[in-house]
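hey can u check if this looks right to u? its 191 residues, i copy pasted from the old doc so theres a chance i mangled smth
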Amino acid sequence: MAAAESPSAALRRRDLCSRGIRLARKMRADVVDLLDAYVEQQGLDASASVAAVEGVPLAAVERWDEQTGTQRLLENLAAYRAFRALLAQMLEEQREQLGEADAGLGQALAAVLLQVSAFAYHLEELLRLESRGIPGEEGDGPPPPPRLSLFEQKLRGLGVLRELAQWAVRSVRDLRQLAKPGTAPGLAESP
């Protein structure tokens, strides 16, 4: 199947992967900065243990090296779509809690939300290049959470940002794997 991939398609895939890696690295740096500001603004302990947050996909995966390129792209896309919904919810809660009192944190959240949306679009472009259908967004977003106390909202936000930082690292690894020459056959689904 590698012979079936045209040189221009292989070049385009490597270019998209390289740009995606840069986007993911930038996003991770911004998320780490946002995480620091969030912890300080919310009065949380940076080492606080946060249980798994409903609707937050985990970046850790067993048998990562056995996944096909398509599986990697689809998991990344589903994760970033979920993060887009979660960050939008966090931004809304932030505005309700503080109003314009802390515009800086709201702006940083909005900037990361924009980066997550752009990265999801970038992943869709990679899937289109591979002639894969892009799954619809129905059901991808997390279910509306039950009404949480202010402290629970803060902890959920901490968990979302921590996991998003981990996803950015995983995305770089996934895109590096896809950018390797001769990985086109790995994009096909396993029989």
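Residues 49 and 159 are 9 Å apart (CA to CA).
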